[in-house]
């Protein structure tokens, strides 16, 4: 695509909405190839680095956007999230990153709203994220998954209260694995703040999230997306695609998907549906919010996720050890927000994730605003 100097000839519905809001476009930021990894190190364009410490990644896949916002180039930037790609860079770069509910914002006209990915932005404040969501939410032509419209503008949630909430939290992975101590500290400090607000907090989470097969199902769906991307690339360029045209990890995932049958994919979709309902049950049983670390460790160093000819899936394996808390909620379609609640001893941002029931972005924005007032972060900026 780089060598072909391809330029799209039409806008997505969301980009049209950005233009209708008179937003100023400065350019296109960096992204991993196909948005497949949580770091920004594409072989075609080179790495994007974290403004807080350029030895480290700003996260991905929307890391170019995050680096632009964190460094002060822009106050807000478009981002998308298919497995954590808004929340991960928000966590790594000290920003607010809201992954909306599936069907909250159209992904038309060419993508399916039933897929894993959703779109919005990364920003420096809950206010800016809420205002952007007000500006662009809603279905597009032909959408079949449509979240119920909010009862009032999202910016009004900044000063609203939903009463005392029932909040669960975790300080280890859903399957019981240990995470970095700085991430544990971030959650514990956030929980202490929430308790000081009068919310009811206890260590609990949906047991369905501990399903040992959840990661395998997500990988099956994710690799299928890579195979589709490879086919779109072939159609766009008008020629066969070879292993030299795309990065090794994406080729490996596309090959993995191409060897699976339609039946394999249908079974994965059906099992995902059961997983989604089992996870949602926890919220239906009376819980309001789940608090987790956004990531299992602080930002990783640039170069850790490089393609490895001896192990084509190596970058994806690195991502798997780091991303223990985000992709599950792409599968369930729920809204989740990463907030910059902690900085490590090394001066790197550490995000905390809040997850609400499907369609409850209002609750996330209200609670996030409470946390931002109690522990402001917008004045914290990296030294450039």
What this model shows, in words?
By secondary structure, the protein is of the alpha+beta class. The protein has one domain: Amidase signature (AS) enzymes. It is 35% helix and 11% strand. The protein has an eight-stranded mixed sheet, with helices on both faces. Helix 6 crosses helix 8. It is globular. The mean pLDDT is 95.
Short description:
The protein is an alpha+beta fold. The protein is 35% helix and 11% strand.
User: What structural class do the secondary elements suggest?
Assistant: alpha+beta
Give the fraction of residues assigned to helices.
Answer: 25-40%
Question: Largest beta sheet: what is the strand line-up?
Answer: 1-3-2-7-8-6-4-5
Distance between the termini: 32 Å
Strands, total number? 8
Architecture blueprint of SSEs:
Layout: H1 13-20, H2 63-70, E1 76-81, H3 87-93, E2 96-99, E3 118-123, H4 126-136, E4 166-169, H5 181-196, E5 200-202, H6 214-237, H7 248-258, H8 262-284, E6 289-293, H9 314-322, H10 328-332, E7 336-343, E8 349-356, H11 361-374
Parallel strand pairs: 4-5, 4-6
Antiparallel strand pairs: 1-3, 2-3, 2-7, 6-8, 7-8
């Amino acid at each position: 695509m780089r060598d072909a100097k391809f330029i799209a000839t039409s806008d997505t519905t969301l980009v049209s909405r950005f233009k209708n809001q008179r937003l100023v476009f400065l350019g296109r930021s960096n992204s991993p190839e196909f948005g497949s990894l949580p770091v920004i190190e594409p072989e075609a364009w080179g790495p994007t680095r974290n403004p807080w410490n350029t030895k480290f990644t700003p996260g991905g896949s929307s890391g170019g956007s995050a680096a632009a916002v964190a460094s002060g180039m822009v106050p807000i930037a478009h981002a998308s999230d298919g497995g954590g790609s808004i929340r991960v860079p928000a966590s790594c770069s000290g920003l607010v990153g809201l992954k909306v509910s599936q069907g909250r914002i159209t992904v038309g006209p060419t993508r399916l709203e039933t897929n894993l990915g959703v779109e919005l932005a990364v920003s420096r404040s809950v206010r800016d994220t809420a205002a952007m969501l007000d500006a662009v939410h809603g279905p597009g032509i032909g959408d079949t998954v449509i979240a119920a419209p909010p009862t009032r503008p999202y910016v009004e949630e900044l000063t609203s209260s939903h009463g005392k909430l029932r909040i669960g939290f975790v300080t280890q992975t859903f399957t019981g694995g240990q995470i970095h101590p700085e991430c544990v500290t971030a959650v514990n400090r956030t929980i202490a703040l929430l308790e000081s607000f009068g919310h009811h907090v206890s260590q609990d989470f949906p047991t369905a999230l501990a399903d040992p097969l959840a990661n395998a199902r997500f990988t099956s769906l994710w690799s299928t997306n890579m195979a589709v991307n490879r086919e779109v690339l072939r159609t766009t360029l008008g020629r066969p695609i070879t292993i030299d045209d795309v990065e090794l990890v994406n080729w490996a995932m596309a090959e993995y998907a191409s060897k699976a049958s339609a039946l394999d994919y249908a079974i994965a979709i059906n099992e995902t549906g059961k997983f989604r309902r089992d996870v949602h049950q926890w919220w239906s049983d009376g819980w309001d919010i789940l608090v987790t670390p956004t990531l299992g460790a602080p930002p990783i160093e640039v170069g850790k996720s490089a393609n490895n000819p001896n192990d084509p899936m190596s970058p994806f394996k690195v991502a798997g050890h780091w991303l223990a808390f985000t992709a599950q909620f792409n599968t369930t379609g729920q809204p989740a927000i990463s907030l910059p609640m902690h900085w490590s001893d090394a001066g790197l941002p550490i995000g905390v994730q809040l997850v609400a029931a499907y369609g409850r972005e209002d609750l996330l924005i209200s609670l996030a605003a409470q946390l931002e007032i109690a522990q402001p972060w917008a004045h914290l900026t990296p030294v450039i």
